[in-house]
Amino acid sequence: MTQHQFIDREALKVKDEVFYGDRIIRFIYSKKREMPCVLYKIFSSKRLSDFLGFFYYDSFIGSKITKTKEFMDRMGIDYSECLENPRLLNTPRKIFERKILYWTKRPMPEDERYIVSPADSKVMLGSFAETSLLYIKNKFFQYQELLGIDKMEWIERFKNGDFAIFRLTPDKYHYNHTPVSGLVIDFYSIDGYYHSCHPEAIVTLCTPHSKNKRVITIINTDVDGGTCIGIVAMVEVAALLIGDIVQCYSEYRYNNPQNIYKGIFLKRGQPKSLFRPGSSTTILLFQRDRVAFSPDLIKNSRRHDIANIYSRGFGTPLVETDVKVRSPIGKKI
């Protein structure tokens, strides 16, 4: 197994990531160039993703294989933060779709200038500007393709801007929360594949995030009650075993969930959507010179002493930091 390390922000420690389903992912993507086109498309299709999701997370066989109590212990899930009684989390799907006491277990800075993490995840920072310390060109996604090649207004708005990539692993809480406060001015989805978001797949395939099915929410924060950092794009990316991205915004805890639509005002830190089980990715795009990322995240991302797949595959330090949902990742300049 290839070593992949990350930095635990709270513990200030370097840790080794334990991958789930590592062998099959490495087999599929290491054999990419040898596979017939039709076969490879099957591996990244919605039909296969749905089937595998059902087998692992819904079926009686999948539940028996996983042994949910042992599975939860192995993943290090904190029972005390679960909203429901942990005994009711008796299938893999219920574990992945669990709700937590985020209002006490995931505190958020009161200062509205701060942008917060949309998920419990591993974050990677980047920039489209060649003059930026965080400049990364076309390694994780094709910028124009990510937003949709016909969305020229948004492509121009985020030109030379900054971005943050949040990778959710199977052990994580799978709700996305709003990173900023603002008014939704566009909301749309783009059909695509269901490639894995495993680091090995990203390095081998290149730019899977802009090829997978994804949901894009464009938020104007320069409004009354907004975070005032310009236009922000929140891109929720489906992946292998992710059957759906459910929009379920709640203004208070998880009460009265509703869909996202143009004209809705989103409050920072509130539940916005749910990834159906597996692992996936959320990407935030910011306009140029509107956001200053947290110094510790920038410092971590450029460390040379961390062994990880991205740094080896792309030939430059690209280190992730494990962050909690609603924790600060940057602030208004």
What is the topological layout?
Blueprint lengths: L4 E4 L4 E4 L5 H9 L6 H7 L2 H12 L2 H7 L1 H8 L16 H5 L5 H4 L8 E3 L4 E7 L15 H5 L4 H6 L4 E7 L6 E3 L4 E9 L8 H7 L8 E7 L10 E7 L7 E3 L17 E2 L4 E5 L4 E7 L4 E3 L1 H7 L7 H6 L6 E3 L4 E5 L1
Parallel strand pairs: 1-15
Antiparallel strand pairs: 1-2, 3-16, 4-5, 4-15, 5-13, 6-12, 7-8, 7-11, 8-9, 9-13, 10-12, 14-16
Helix pairs in contact: 1-10, 3-4
Q: How far from one another are the termini? A: 42 Å
What integer is the average pLDDT?
85
Structural class: alpha+beta
Shape: globular
Count of DSSP-assigned helices: 12
Number of strands: 16
**How big is the Rg?**
19 Å
* Number of domain modules: 1
- In the sheet with the most strands, the strands line up as 2-1-15-4-5-13-9-8-7-11
State the helicity in percent bands: 10-25%
Strand content: 15-25%
Assembly context of the chains: single chain
Please describe the biggest sheet, giving its number of strands, its sense, and whether it closes into a barrel.
10 strands, mixed
Unreliable runs: none
Order of SSEs, N→C? EEHHHHHHHEEHHEEEHEEEEEEEHHEE
